[in-house]
Write a sequence for this structure.
């Protein structure tokens, strides 16, 4: 007769509690007492701040639309499916479209996210669970410092320092794994380094601090009771992380990643410096070049001498605006969905 | 520091004035063709002290030299040049905000009409003061000298020629061992006068092979784009098998290998001399003092020893319609620039004017009223 194995019945598993929502305490419990002047002023300020943000977003959207429509009516191509070279010199018959910008933007941002997310998770877990207290503080500041480096510095560093350094690896990938579409020879030269490969790595470094900071803040709030309970049941460090910290902090980690994705989608100067312009179509290879929405607009911004020409680029900006909006909404939905389950 | 500068300027002005009085006493103010440089000596320094101009970034450094030399020859004179781009320069000139404009291309009819109105219904003149040769920088380990023809160049930048050991290139370089590596053409991805002139050159010199037209945006259909001249230099430096077009000054500074152009009479390397030879053979579109160059003829030219690929930038001035003070200052600046100002140009990647153009320029400058 065998003694019952605790793992069979899962008696040892610590079931993660769902994150308790903040207790809602209404600040005007009765609603009948005379509202004092200070309350009224403060309430008014808070309300108008909230309204101002919404008004600002709506105003930006309306402005983009208002400037984009005249240019769109003069476009000779399908705005959503045309991916070739933009020709905006003859403003009566312009050729522009966002298909390729969209693909490059999404591709480079996702690549950066795929690189940054595991690293950020590791850093956050290390800082909150493994690192000695004396080390955790300074290390966290160092990570945050990454966010303070201007993006032009990242761009120059990426093209002049990082690209030559990773060239042997990039060439090796292209030579040996070139049959796989991600490593196929693209429309920019692998040796030159002005590719999505280089840009994605730089972008990953740039979004790392945001994801790490958010994940760290959430992980550190894991209820001590849960951690201690897990330890009491004989869980190892890793098991504690797996059974308490991760389930508790997953939604925070995901929303941090989405914040990072938002930054990656809108990153401009670093990508403008690194990514090479291209003449051939984008093919979903890491060794392609191209423009993202933001870098395309930045590259032409000095030539905006005509409202229709500028309008073409503003139309692209409008698509980026909608894309970022959609990503943020999705992230919000994902996070709240996680919280309920 | 400022005080001492002013003091020195005053001193020099005083001595220059004394000299000018002496010269005037001799009744001679003709100094055409004199290449020597004597501070305050043979320059015509009348008119207003300050001039303003705006436009092409390509001539910015040359204007810097002209301004320095003008200040030396005519103490107290200063030109403030705002390098905002050719289009902006012409707009500012037409609306009367600046005294003259710098532009990479001649004005179109509409702009010319506006300029004429600005000049009290007198035509504006194009004076080709600054020539910037465009280098074909390449990165090909082991190949010290490379020659290309306009046709092969068009082939490379349209994607018709993709490998360095293409028969067309081998035929042009019989003494070189060209490797079997892919060619990476590098173009300017921002809109640029250099791209415009490069494409105009190909359209004029290799009309069969280049049918993509011209314009400030590259239309070739092959290669990868880099931002600004510095970006081209960087891309060519790090990419084996790359070839790109960039102003001579940038290529020289970076120590890049530069290809020679074979227009049919043998390869011509890019030097100050070969560029000067090409300019000397240039012809003007019209007669008179509006010195618009016949670029097609310059680009398609096959004269021996001439390097034809270059950026021509104009200074656009009023023929008449300035106030007397201003007209004298514009005359003074242009004559000094065309004459004394040419000395330092070679070292910063421009071409010193050949005598034939200089004579025409000085004559035109003197005719401004």
């Amino acid at each position: 007769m065998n003694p019952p194995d605790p793992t069979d019945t899962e008696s040892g598993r610590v079931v993660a509690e769902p994150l308790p929502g903040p207790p809602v305490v209404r600040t005007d419990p009765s609603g009948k007492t005379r509202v004092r002047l200070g309350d009224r002023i403060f309430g008014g300020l808070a309300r108008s701040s909230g309204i101002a943000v919404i008004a600002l977003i709506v105003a930006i959207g309306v402005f983009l639309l208002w400037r984009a429509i005249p240019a769109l009516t003069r476009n000779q191509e399908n705005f959503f499916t045309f991916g070739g070279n933009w020709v905006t010199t003859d403003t009566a018959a312009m050729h522009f479209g966002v298909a390729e910008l969209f693909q490059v933007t999404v591709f480079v941002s996702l690549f950066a996210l795929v690189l940054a997310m595991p690293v950020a998770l590791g850093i956050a877990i290390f800082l909150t669970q493994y690192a000695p207290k004396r080390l955790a503080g300074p290390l966290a500041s160092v990570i945050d410092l990454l966010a303070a480096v201007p993006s032009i510095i990242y761009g120059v560093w990426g093209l002049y320092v990082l690209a030559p350094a990773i060239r042997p690896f990039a060439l090796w990938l292209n030579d040996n794994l070139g049959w796989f579409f991600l490593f196929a020879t693209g429309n920019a030269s692998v040796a030159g380094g002005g590719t999505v490969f280089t840009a994605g790595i730089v972008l990953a470094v740039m979004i790392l601090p945001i994801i790490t900071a958010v994940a760290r803040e959430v992980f550190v709030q894991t209820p001590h009771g849960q951690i201690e309970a897990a330890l009491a049941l004989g869980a190892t460090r890793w098991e504690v992380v797996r059974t308490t910290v991760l389930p508790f902090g997953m939604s925070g980690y995901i929303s941090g990643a989405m914040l990072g994705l938002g930054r990656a989608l809108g990153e401009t100067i670093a990508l403008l410096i690194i990514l090479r312009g291209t003449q051939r179509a984008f093919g979903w290879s890491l060794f392609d070049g191209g423009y993202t929405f933001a870098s395309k607009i930045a590259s032409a911004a000095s030539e905006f001498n005509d409202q229709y020409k500028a309008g073409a680029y503003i139309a692209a900006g409008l698509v980026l605006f909608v894309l970022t909006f959609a990503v943020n909404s999705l992230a919000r939905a994902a996070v709240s969905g996680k919280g309920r389950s | 520091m400022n005080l001492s500068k002013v003091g020195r300027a005053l001193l020099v002005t005083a001595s220059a004035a004394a000299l000018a009085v002496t010269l005037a006493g001799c009744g001679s103010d003709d100094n055409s063709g004199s290449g020597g440089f004597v501070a305050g000596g043979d320059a015509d320094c009348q008119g207003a002290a300050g001039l303003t101009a705006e436009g092409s970034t390509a001539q910015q450094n040359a204007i810097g030299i002209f301004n320095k030399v003008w200040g030396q020859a005519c103490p107290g004179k200063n030109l403030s040049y705002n390098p905002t781009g050719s289009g902006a320069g012409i707009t500012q000139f037409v609306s009367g905000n600046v005294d003259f404009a710098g532009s990479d291309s001649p004005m179109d009819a509409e702009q010319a009409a506006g300029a004429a109105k600005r000049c009290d219904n007198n035509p504006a003149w194009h004076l080709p003061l600054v020539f910037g040769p465009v280098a074909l920088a390449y990165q090909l380990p082991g190949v010290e000298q490379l020659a290309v023809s306009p046709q092969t160049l068009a082939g490379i930048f349209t994607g018709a020629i993709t490998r360095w050991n293409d028969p067309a290139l081998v035929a042009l370089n019989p003494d070189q061992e060209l490797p079997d590596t892919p060619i990476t053409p590098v173009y300017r991805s921002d809109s640029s006068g250099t791209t415009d002139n490069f494409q105009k050159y190909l359209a004029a010199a290799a009309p069969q092979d280049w049918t993509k037209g011209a314009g400030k945006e590259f239309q070739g259909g092959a290669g990868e784009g880099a931002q600004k001249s510095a970006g081209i230099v960087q891309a060519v430096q790090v990419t084996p098998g790359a070839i790109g077009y960039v102003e001579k000054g940038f290529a020289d500074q970076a120590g890049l290998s530069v290809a020679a152009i074979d227009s049919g009479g043998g390869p011509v390397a890019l030097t100050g001399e070969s560029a000067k030879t090409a300019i000397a053979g240039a012809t003007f579109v019209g007669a008179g003092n509006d010195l618009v160059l016949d670029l097609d003829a310059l680009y398609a030219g096959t004269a021996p020893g001439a390097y034809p690929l270059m950026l021509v930038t104009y200074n656009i001035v009023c023929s008449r319609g300035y106030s007397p003070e201003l007209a004298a200052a514009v005359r003074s600046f242009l004559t000094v620039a065309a004459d004394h100002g040419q000395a330092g140009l070679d070292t910063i990647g421009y071409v010193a004017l050949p005598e034939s153009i200089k004579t025409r320029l000085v004559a035109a400058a003197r005719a401004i009223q």
